[in-house]
Write a structure and sequence with these properties.
Oligomer: homotetramer
Low-confidence stretches of chain A: none
Mean pLDDT of chain A: 96
Largest interface: A-C, 19 and 19 residues
Strand content of chain A: 35-45%
Number of helices of chain A: 3
Order of helices and strands of chain A: EHHEEEEEEEH
Number of domains of chain A: 1
Helix content of chain A: 10-25%
Number of strands of chain A: 8
CATH superfamily of chain A: Hotdog Thioesterase
């Protein structure tokens, strides 16, 4: 499995802060989702197109550890890599960097679900092919 | 048309505030949505069931004027009433009260859209019947 | 330590769903926050007042496992209890029930932070007193 | 007054959609905020630094008209320009384009508020200087 890391930059929105003056903890999970989209783009595919091909990747487990501050207008870098692959599920890991320092780490587990049947299914071959792609040989989709 | 007002109480979440210490302006539109749900419940129906019957009420115009402060943990009252009804659209008006004072006013326009055709349609008779209901003769749905 | 459970009911907002037709995974963390507020209210105190007394409880770890469906308009019950207490941090655990079944579990870790110094501090005596309260002898704050 | 338009591109997040399959109406107001940040950057300044200089620009009125569809993964372009300037308030106007077509228009009114006094104040000279800047002579801040 190729653990290539994809990086994506996200500027923190005012509406993502709370009265403590930091990014509200739930919003990191929105950023993880953005990172997953970028990870797939790095392999020449979009999550949208995977759904259109009948496979959804709903989150079945989500985790984050917050060690540092993230504030309004910060330009955080979210690093993502595929960490594990099972019969019908995959795990992504994340690091959020702010001003060059890792401020948050996390992971998400996803099942491969048939959109039609709304049931977990083994990772289909076409999805596996995306997961196994070497991003260096694909142009990042816009 | 019966302009009966429905009131619903919403406690402001921490994640709805921003670093200014107020509820972020976009969140009022979530509260307006909650109020629309309560308005329909007052007439013995849910928005969910209307969608299941094939009609969606997407927002085509949204407006809010913010005059006072709303902070974390405030228990705001959202007042809503049906203000206008046209062939294929309706308007709701809103007032948000905090500690008894009107702090925000707003309105939304919705079209009656066929879920199947994804097109605006004249207000169906069954929807109109809900809109014309006198809430005092219906028990508010939980 | 009294592991009394506080239950709070939350109706899922339309804006909390995503195009998969479920509540978006990040929103559960908003609900956990609502539950924390209710837990404190059950002990006669508000999180707001704790912050005003100079102590913040920022989240340093957040976790959720999603096993079942939560949809628009569902009236989910969030159960919360204090699971662990350390020198300068506490852990809450959560269960989300939908139609009587546990559909999601999770936990959050919080540090006691001085608002002034923006640093972790040992749990102050007045905070510990709240944490140790037996909710059955307090009237739930509105 | 220079009505120069600033454009900023935003990719629609999964969590910004709702079960209707469109971007939820409240989220456009987050995008308007992102556009305001970009507008200021085009003039060599950030909203963050304006707040740090003691002036906040809270929204006192917000409006949007939704005419077309915006879906997950769409790359919308938000156009923003300063439309009006009064003694203590300013108005921005917005257009959201999707696949080259205007799908939403809107505006927001902001007051210049002293962060210290939490009161509206006349537009300070230093803020006015930013507002009057010709963006073509400034390098867009990253």
């Amino acid at each position: 499995m190729i653990e290539a890391v994809t990086e994506t930059t996200i500027r923190v929105r005012y509406g993502e802060t709370d009265q403590m003056g930091h990014a509200y903890y739930a919003n990191y999970f929105y950023w993880f989702e953005v990172a997953r989209g970028a990870w797939l783009r790095d392999r020449g595919v979009t999550y949208k197109s995977i759904e259109e091909m009948g496979i959804m990747l709903p989150v079945v487990e989500a985790h984050a550890e917050y060690r540092g501050e993230v504030k309004y207008d910060d330009d955080v870098v979210v690093r993502i890599w595929l960490a594990e692959k099972r019969r019908a599920s995959i795990q992504f890991k994340y690091e959020v960097l702010n001003h060059g320092k890792v401020v948050t780490t996390g992971y998400t587990w996803h099942v491969t679900m048939s959109r039609e049947k709304r049931k977990a299914v083994s990772i289909p071959i076409f999805v596996n092919e995306f997961l196994e792609r070497d991003p260096t040989v694909y142009e990042r989709l816009h």
